[in-house]
Each structure stands twice: as C-alpha cells, then as structure tokens.
Amino acid sequence: MDHRSPVCTDAVWRLPVTVCRITQFLGEQTAGALLERAIDSAGDTLQPSMIRDREVVPDFRRSRSRHDFAAPELMAAIDEVLEAVEHTLGVSCQHTEPSYSLNAHNDGDFYRPHQDTSAEFAPRRLLTFVYYLHRTPRPFDGGELRVFDAALPLHTETAGRWQERTWRDWEPEHDSIVFFLPTAWHEVRPVSCPSKQHADSRFAINGWLCSPDPANRGNDASP
To answer: Would the keyword Oxidoreductase turn up in this protein's UniProt record (predicted)?
Structure first.
C-alpha cells in the first residue's frame, strides 16, 4: 500500500489575514472635528509621502503626508479597544508608543503592495492601524485597502505575480478604523477624485504601535 501523502509538495496554502475593523469609531461630532483639522492641513504642511521613511518614489507611492499631525482623541480611543484587538490578532502591545501621520490621497494617488516592516523597523512595529476620514457623501471612488492573503510557504519578496494572489478589499469608510499586523501585504487602490480638491481627498491617519528599540535606548533616535 502506498502511504505517501496525496498533497503535492509544491502545494500553496492561502490563509486570510485577520483584520479588525470598527465603524463609527469616534462618533459623528469627534470625527467631524478631526476631519476639519485634516482638511485645514494644506499647503506646506503636507509633503510627498515617502517609503521606508526616507525616499519619495512616485511610481510606488503617491500621496501627501503630514507627520506632526496630532490626534490625541484617536489615540485615546485606540487605547480603549487595544486589549480586544491584541486578543484578536495575537499580539501584545504593552509598553509601546504610537507613531502616526496624516495622509491624503487625491486623484490618481495610490500605494502599491508592501509590508510595514523592514530590517530596520520589523522589531519595532507591532501593530498597524488606519483611521479613515472623508466628506460625505464620499467625493471620491477607489482607495480601498487591499489586504492580501498569506501564502504558505511564506514568501516575503515583492517580486511575483500579484494577479495570482487572493485578497480582500476594505472600504475607506468615514470614521472607521482597521487594525492588522505589519507583516501583512497590503496596498491602497488607486483613487479617483473628479474635483481634485484637497478637501475632497481620502484622508487617513495611519501608523503603528512601536516597541522600544533596545539598541537605541537612551539615545534620541526617532521611531
């Protein structure tokens, strides 16, 4: 009798990546006030978004960002749900600090498939969060967060045939937030904003909960 496994050794397993999504997160009044602050962030306060926190690569990422945007009400709300998020995603975020920025996607903007980890940041970014803001009714199309299913054996290189991957798209709904692990492959789908007006952008506050870097303890290294 042949006891060999009937499963091919080249078989690829695809596992859905867990995403925690909460709608009506801050409530109408607080979300509205935060949106107005985001809209007011125009002119020199928004700069071309970078990858790896140091490079502007418009063929890979096109949007504008502001890194000194303060959203204490959002951080307080995240603290309130963090225990449940940790349990769902299987991660501990004790003693972490937030690092986040405001991002605005307008007509034609996008962010190609990527992970939020690298050799430099992987030990520090433990949890990714994205909070969405926009005028209603939604003045743009597209801009979905596409999260790709994990494939086993795990492949972390960016090269490959993305059209063969499986995924789920998450709508950038006003006053909603998503949490997922930074190792997940994800992208921002292209945005169509007919008016091209800054106030009609797809706004998002996205960031991470970061653990301290033991190598830099006591130094002034930025997150």
So the answer is: yes
What tokens appear for 88 in the block? 């769902």
Tokens 């004790």: give the residue: 94
Summarised one tens digit per residue, pLDDT across range 36-45 is: 999 998 766 8
Cis before residue 48, ω within 30 degrees of 0?
A: no
CATH number for the domain spanning 66: value is 2.60.120.620
**Quick check: is 67 in a domain?**
yes
pLDDT in tens, 90-99: 999 999 999 9
The answer as to whether 7 is a domain residue is no
Question: Quick check: is 37 in a domain?
Answer: yes
Contact in structure between 201 and 106 (CB atoms under 8 Å): yes
At 160-198, the pLDDT tens digits run 465 678 899 999 999 999 999 999 999 999 999 999 999
